[in-house]
Amino acid sequence: MCPRAAESRMPLRADAPAPPKESIVGVRAHRFKFRSAARRESDCSIFMRRVFLTAVPVRSIIDFRVSLHGLGAQSPSGGRAAGPALRGCVMQSVRMRLLRSGGAGALLSIVAAAVLRGGEAPETALHAAVCEVLVDGHVACSGFFVDPGGRCLTCAHGVAAGKTIEVLLNDGRRLRAALAGMDVGADTAVLAVEGLGAGGVACLKLAAEAPRVGAALRLAGTALYRRRLVLAGTVARADASFEYNPDLKTYVEVFYVDAMTAHGTSGGPWLDGEGRVVGLQSGGISLNGAFCGVAFVVPARLLLPMAERPAGAPARGDIGAACDELWELPPATVKRFSGIAAEGLLVCRVLKGGACDKAGVACGELIVGLDGRPCRFREDFVRAIRGRAPGRTLELAVVRERQGALVRETAVLTLADAREALSLPPK
Asked: Hey, which residues does 27 pair with through a beta bridge?
C-alpha cells in the first residue's frame, strides 16, 4: 500500500503606550469599501480587507459589531437606507474578531463571508451554507452550497459508491440529493439538492485565485459526527501536487495545508480571511490510522468549472496504478535496484484491467522513464500523465526481474480515463 494559512501580523512598536484594559486602540483600516446601489439590487455588495492594530487588548479574543448602512440598516440621519437585500438576505452587521498574536500584534479579520440574513451572526450564516452528506443513511462527509438553488459541492470519494444521497442542513432539514456530476481527478462531486423551497439556501463564493504559503485558512464541516466545527489551518504548499486516493483508485490534484483534520470533514470548504472558498477538503497524511497534521485540499480553480457545469467534468488520463518514489522506500528495496537504477517510481498498486495491467506492468517493478525522459518524482510523472488525453499511447522504461536478474525493458501502454478506475478491482 502506498505511504502516503499564517496571518500577516504587524509587530507592536516598542514605544507604543500600553492600551487600557479591554480596549482597542490604533485601529488602521488597510482597506474598507462599501458600495450600495439603490437602483440595482444585484450590485449591493461589501468588500472588506484586513484591519491591523498597533496595540492589542488584554483579552485574547474580542468580538464587536460594525454597523453597515445601506443594506436595510439604520442610516446616520435616522432614515432607512436604500440598499436592498443581497440574494434575498439583509446584511445588517458583520462580526469581527480580534486574534491576539502572542502579544506581538493583532489582526482583525472577518469571521465569515457567507450571505447573512437580517440580525444573523456570521457563524450562523457560514454553517447555514455547510451541510452533512448522508450516503445510504449514514453520515459520510461534509459539503457546502455554491448556489442558492441547491447546488452543493462535496468529495467524490464520499458519494461515489452510494445508492441514495441526502443532505442534513444546519436547520435540521433532511433533504434528498441527486448526483449531478463528478470529477474523480479533483475528488469533487456536485449534488443537486431537492426540496429547499422558494427561499433557497445560503451559499459560499469560490475564490478566483489561490492562497499563498503561510496564509491562514479555516475549514468548516463535521468531524467524527461533531457538527458545526470550524478548524484552523495554514497553507504549507500552494502549488499543485498529487495524492493517490484508494477509494477513487486514481490520483487527485491537491495543495497542502498544515492542519489536524478528522474523518467526516472531507468535502468541507476551506475559507480564506475574506470568507471565500479556496479549496475542498480531500484527505490527509496518516500513519497507522492517525492523522499527521498535513491536509490534502483540492484547489478552487478545479471546483469552479464543476460548480458552473456539473456534467462537464474533463476526461483525465490514467495508468491504473500507484507508485512510490524509490528513495522513500526501505533501504533493502533501494539496495535491490542499486546495480541498475538509483532513482525511479516503484509500482505498488495495479488495477486489474487498467492501462498498466494491459501493458504487462506489475507491482514491484520500477518505472525509470516516460517517453524517453527520466522519472524521478511522482508528482511530475502524474502531471505528465494528466497532460495527455485518454487513448494516447506512451512508452514506459521499466526495470523488472527476468530469470533472477534485473533488466530494463520498454512497456507500451494506452492511457485510460480516470473515471473508469472506479469500476476496476485491485490486482
From this structure: 53
- Concatenate the DSSP letters of all residues of 257-324 into one string: EE----TT-TTPEEE-TTS-EEEEEEEEEEETTEEEEEEEEEEHHHHHHHHH-TT-PPP-EE-SEEEE
The dihedral built from the CA positions of residue 73, 74, 80 and 82, taken in this order, carries a sign that is negative
User: What is the C-alpha to C-alpha distance for residues 145 and 171, in angstroms, rounded to an integer?
Assistant: 14
Q: Which domains does the chain have, with CATH numbers?
A: 27-110 (no CATH), 127-193 (2.40.10.10), 216-305 (2.40.10.10), 317-423 (2.30.42.10)
> Which of 104, 115, 80, 96 is closest to 13 using CA atoms?
104
- Continuous segment of H or E residues that includes residue 370: strand 366-370
297-356 tens-digit pLDDT: 999 999 999 999 998 888 999 999 999 999 999 999 999 999 899 999 999 999 999 999
Q: What is the pLDDT averaged over residues 93-121?
A: 37
| Cα–Cα separations (whole angstroms), residue 318 to 3, 59, 413 | 20, 53, 11
Residue partners of 190: CB distance under 8 A and separation at least 6: 151, 152, 153, 179, 180, 181, 182, 306, 307, 310
Share of the chain above pLDDT 90, in %: 64
Residue 24: is its pLDDT beyond 50?
Answer: no
CA 47 to chain centroid, in Å, comes to: 23
